[in-house]
User: Fold ABC transporter ATP-binding protein from Agromyces albus.
Amino acid sequence: MTRDHTLEIDHLSLGYGERTVVDDVSTIIPPGRITAIIGANASGKSTLLRGVARLLQPRMGAVLLDGSPITDLSPNAAARVIGLLPQSPSAPDGITVGDLVGRGRYPHQGWFRRWSADDERAVDRALAATGTSDLVGRRLAELSGGQRQRAWIAMALAQETDVLLLDEPTTFLDLNHQVEVLDLLVDLNHEHGTTIVMVLHELNLACRYADHLIAMQRGRVAVEGRPADVVDAAMIEEVFELPCEVVVDPRSGTPLVVPLGRHRVSS
Assistant:
């Protein structure tokens, strides 16, 4: 089992150039649970995740890991606790899937990067979990978008961190593979207690798979809490400017958002 770390966002402001994108956000990430950050385009979702991952220097406030500013940690120390799959990851030309996933083990290796049996087992587990074991020798550039995304997720899993941040992990995946990836993340959470924070665009998948939602609007937290407690038609229309109906999924008991467009099919 992983260790439950406290991850607190304390009056955090982030931005690019002169533009502030995340404005004075405070929240606590539930440890050992799955949190989904949702919101309309340009609401600050990915920027908030980048701030938690130490990729952006705070303009104000801080991200606290176990009560201390995360910026106080060395890059390697932070990478042993928090793993990140960014929205548009890049890799060297010609890299194979096996080499890519192996890079997830760098934070656990010493100065001379000696490969150990633990590293081998971690990589094998990550490959098996993502269904990429048969792609080990393939070059990343030769794969389909869905295969590449699963390879990147395998690299993040191989890092074996207590906290895992994912920016739109279902990008480039068809619906079947989106569900497979989210099932995989739930398995990781249930089996190892990994705290997972992910940005998702698909509202119904966020409601189905997340224990906790953070809805962003114009750089601030509009609402947060359990999906069943915070997702209703008024909230969706306010945050997403989307008229809708919200019903309860009879199988999962989670909210199901039904958009109401201008053109509606009648029976």
